[in-house]
Amino acid sequence: MFGVMSRFLSNATNRIDAKGRVSVPASFRSVLSECGIQELYCLQDFIYPAISVGGPDLLDRYERQISSVDPFSPEANRMSLLVHGGGVFMRLDAEGRLMVTDFIRDFTGISSDVTFVGRSDHFQLWQPQAFHEAQAAAREGRFGSRPA
Description:
Layout (H helix, E strand, L loop, with lengths): L10 E5 L5 E3 L2 H9 L4 E6 L6 E4 L1 H12 L6 H10 L3 E5 L5 E3 L2 H7 L4 E6 L4 E4 L1 H16 L5
Antiparallel strand pairs: 1-7, 2-6, 3-4, 3-5, 4-8, 7-8
Helix pairs in contact: 2-3
């Protein structure tokens, strides 16, 4: 589905307006448009205090994983609880803004600013400081054990 240029890359921080909306970065809106994504599936990340955002294909990917295990198993039950109970559909408004709802705020700690983080086939919404700390920890984990 995604071509070479149709990836969510980089990060940007935007301020939430007085009505609780935030502008999605133009480069991310461009990818959404190029891929024909109009309805956004938003999911509470399994590890980080972030909201993952993609098209319906993101939900499809998780549901394929759930369907690959016994539907009565504890694993399928836990996965459904996270994927379905921790997800919502949203849309951008005509100006390319996303409403920062309590669903987003409560899980991420976002208050006045949102950091948009590209994750290739989807993007995430982060509280800015939490993103910087997680990125620094990832960098340290990746490069901190290198020999001098």
